[in-house]
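quick one, 263 residues, struct below
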Amino acid sequence: MKKLLSIALSLCLLLSVALADVTLTKVYKTEDLVSNTFHNGFVTAIGMTGENTVVLKDDGTYEYTKRLMQTAEDGTVAADLVYTFTGTYTKDGDTVVLMFPTAGTASENWGPLAGSYFQNTENASFADSDYAAGVVQCKEAESHLIADLFEGPYLLDSLTTVRYPRARMRRLAMDAALDYSADAFPALPPYLHLLGAQKDALPLLKAAALPVSHSLARLAEQNAPCRAVVDAQLRACDFGALCRKKPEPMGGALRQKIIFLTN
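---
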C-alpha cells in the first residue's frame, strides 16, 4: 500500500526551470514544530528547529531531506536528526508529486535526550522498497521505521510553498476530507441560516431576497442549490463533531434550535 502514497508539492519556481536540478528548502522555528512531529514534547522542549529540503533532479528522481536540530548558544549542534528519502517524481505544469520513496537513510543524535529517553541511531537505512528495514527513534519499547517519517512529521508543512501557504493547504485538506469540489456549489450562498435573533426583529426577514430559516431541513426543501449547500454544511458539522476530544453525536445541526436574544 505504501507504494501508492505520495506527497504533492506545488512549485511555482518550476514554471521557468527546465532540465535543471531544483533545490527548495523550508526552515522551521521551534514554534512551527508544535504538534507537527513525532515525540512532539521532547522535540519542542529542548528547542529544536527544523529544515526540509527537496532536490528535484532532471532525471526524474528526487532527494528529500528532513532535519531536526538543537543548536547550543555557541553555535554548535547538540542534537541532530537527519532523514533522507530518494525516489521518483512526476511533473505536470507547476505541480510536482513525490512518489513514495524506494530508499532512505537516517542518522539520529538525540543530544541531551540520548540514553535516558532515546537511543542514538547511526546509518540506519532501507533500500529497494524494503520498508521493514531501518528502525529509528527507539524509546523504551517503542520504535519507528524510517519510511514512517516520510509523510509523518510536517505533513501539511511539507505541502507549504510561497504559492500555497499553510492556511490554504489546511483548507484544501479539509475540502478533500469532506469531498468538496470547486464546481459543486453555487457562486453565492443560496440561503440564510438563522442561528439567533430578537423576536421583534423577525418580521424584517420577510423582505430577505434569499430563503431564510433556522431549520436546515426546511432550507434543503427550497431548491437544488439549497440542498447541495445544506448537505455540505451537514457534512462539515458532523465531521467537526466526530473530531472533538470527546466525539459528539452526528446530526446536531439538524436538531439545533433558534436562539432568541434578549436585551
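The longest strand covers residues 77-92.
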